[in-house]
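Long-time lurker, finally posting.

We've been working with F5/8 type C domain-containing protein (Mugilogobius chulae) and I want a structural starting point before designing mutants. I don't trust myself to interpret raw outputs, so I'm hoping someone here can both generate the structure tokens and explain anything notable. Sequence follows.
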Amino acid sequence: MEIASGGTQVNLALRGKASQRDTYGDDVASRAIDGNRDSNWAHKSCAITASTTNAWWRVDLQNSYMVTSIIITNRGDCCAERLDGAQIRVGNSLDNNGNNNPVVATVSHIPAGVSQNFTLPEPVEGRYVNVFLPGSGDKYLQLCEVEVYGKPKPTEVNLALRGKATQRDTYGDDVASRAIDGNRDSNWAHKSCAITASTTNAWWRVDLQNSYMVTSIIITNRGDCCAERLDGAQIRVGNSLDNNGNNNPVVATVSHIPAGVSQSFTLPEPVEGRYVNVFLPGSGDKYLQLCEVEVYGFEKKKSMHTSFLLLLLVETASVSAQVNVAPHGEATQIDTYNELGAASNAIDGHRTSIYYSKSCSHTATTTDPWWRVDLREYYMITSITITNRGDCCAHRLDGAQIHIGNSLENNGNNNPVVATISHILEGRSKTFTLLEPVEGRYVNVFLPGTDKYLTLCEVEVYGQLKRPVNWAIRGEATQIDSYEKFGDASNAINGNRDSDWAHGSCSHTGTTNNPWWRVDMREPFMITSITITNRGDCCAERLDGAQIRVGNSLDNNGNNNPVVATVSHIAAGVSQSFPFAKPVEGRYVNVFLPGGKDKYLTLCEVEVYGNIKETVNLALNGEATQIDSYDALGDASNAIDGNRDSNWAHNSCSHTGTTSNPWWRLDLRDFFMVTSIIITNRGDCCAQRLDGAQIRVGSYLDNNGNNNPVVATVSHIPAGVSQSFTLPEPVEGRYVNVFLPVTDKYLTLCEVEVYGNPKKTMNLALNGQATQIDSYEKFGDASNAIDGNRDSDWAHDSCSHTGTTNYPGGEWTWGSPTWSPPSPSLTEETAVQRDWTELRSESAIPWIIMEQQSCSGDGLTHPSRRLSKLSFS
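Top reply, 14 upvotes:
Generated this for you. Predicted structure of F5/8 type C domain-containing protein:
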């Protein structure tokens, strides 16, 4: 008989949900996955069904795994024979409560209190593990612990996301790249589908940028109409571009994909290819429409096993790949009781629960004691296991809170509470499985109250390292100029660190002054690090001294943004990371090489890591109103109080009276480019009342704002649910209305959230024409002051400069006609002395007061003032 040991694998059952046919007393199903092998029924760690026919117990692993072994602990204080003949079943089906899944093992007999390991000959795929006790009559099914071990089902990478798409021609603006944007949205109007013009032998192609062993392809068909158009399309895979790739072998043919459906084509054997084509043969009016094409496979020259393992490590994060990450962290606590109770004892990897074994942390008696582990990196945490002291005082841990987050405010104790310890028995280890993974670097155990000790004999933290995203790949690159066709700016964000320039994967400027390269991330990010790969085949020293600049401004092509790092030297072909002490906000990342003539700037890859800048719910700063109010509990402002509570009685929902065409409106107090709106429906009743409501966004108050454009319509939001409406394109507006176009209706909103960005302003001077009284020399031209460059060193030729004169002045002209001069009563002296805001409001004239700092022979600066006219068209 094989007595079980969990080994180094993770028990997947701990993160699952257990159920059973029925329950004897309070011996609920979850006791069999509490991480405790205690086999004494009286200790309340065993699951037991009532006496029944065909008793069963099941754990839902929450995901599909390749199960390799199962350990069952039998009851120890009596009745071991009751488990004889039980079947262990594993699979993905819930037919017959999962009891129709395949039998992978049968229990002949497990002695009382023993944990027996059932190792499967081959891994079996399944989400559900059942223990089924067949037979009629009085059958009890008793399980004191069920442990499930295995590996994740391998998940491959969608290679198409990194490719470049093209097609025969294009219908309107439905470009080929829309079919590899990672979005399966099948509604053509949402602009995520590629469509060719009506043609003969229409085709679409993705270049994967490298040759892969392709294993499967998923195609999403258009959903809003015309699904039959794709019938008969051929999928071709290969390495040839003959006939635009349409001569490559056919690996599958589309018979029919229903509207909006994503259909997978799994190839019998992997097929090598760089190019994947969808080819629609036939003459006449053929449109080829693809709302998403996904390509899965692995790199050539790697075994599938190695490839899947690599993809698993890089692309997936799954329970079985998790380890206890706490031992690699750093622990601290409010204070320490004595030399036996150091904070680090709680992450030494031992569950020893005897304090004098020097394996438990222990604070002194204090108010609100706390303990914290710094994981040193960011994780998506799925569960935490805590071992309580075993030699005494188990009750001391009652009421302790577990906090997870990224903040060190209040020593990390202000991070969100994810679990509270009611009680852990002496010496026991209890696992707290989180409903959803929680991001965090810091895990705190906080014990609120006075005169408290906090003792922890082990804290284990399970989760996945948060995989950083290289946001540069999704950006748009540009540079001062290009050396030749191989040196395009976009080569530096193609996801390829190949450092040989001849391979066409490096950007390269011509020889110039102050060369620069820039990536537009398309929206602001909080950037944490940037990695640069230098050229490897020659000339590594050319990058020495390059500045990395990050910010939100395009002044001077973005080269005026703050310098966040400087390249001293990157060896040939090396990728060097530049991490920042604090995240830096910016949409634009520039690499700028200052210096004189004859400078080349070559970059073989630029990677940008960080997080999207958190958006603010604009509604919180707005003002809400509605057609009328049902009563005092239904005020319009309740829908923007920041509270998604969906119970109307809790006074957090707006509610109109019954009326025709009821409406609710939010004034954002300024103009924004609105990108998404979230609406929370009432949860305690009447969810259907909101069906058909229109969301309108605009800048006008005609008809109380209800004439503004409709940007979304509510089909149905289930009771208490918060539904997000993401707009295909940002919509400008100050007013957001929810309008219900029916008679005798109530309009109830438990929260309305509005997200977006301020409407961009433009520096009008950039489009103007500057002049001045005269110029000091060629470097001091008036136009230098409106070149978009804030460089303040005159020698850099970016400043205007007059000659020495009495009242230098100039006129900035955007065209004609110009505004009228000021009233006769306004003199230079009075204008200088009066507030500019008052002046502008009184006379509405574009006159400005200018100061000229003049240097005289005495070495002092003498300011002079002048009233100067500003002209607009």
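Before you design anything, note these points.
Residues 477 and 519 are 4 Å apart (CA to CA).
Residues 304-315 form the longest helix (12 residues).
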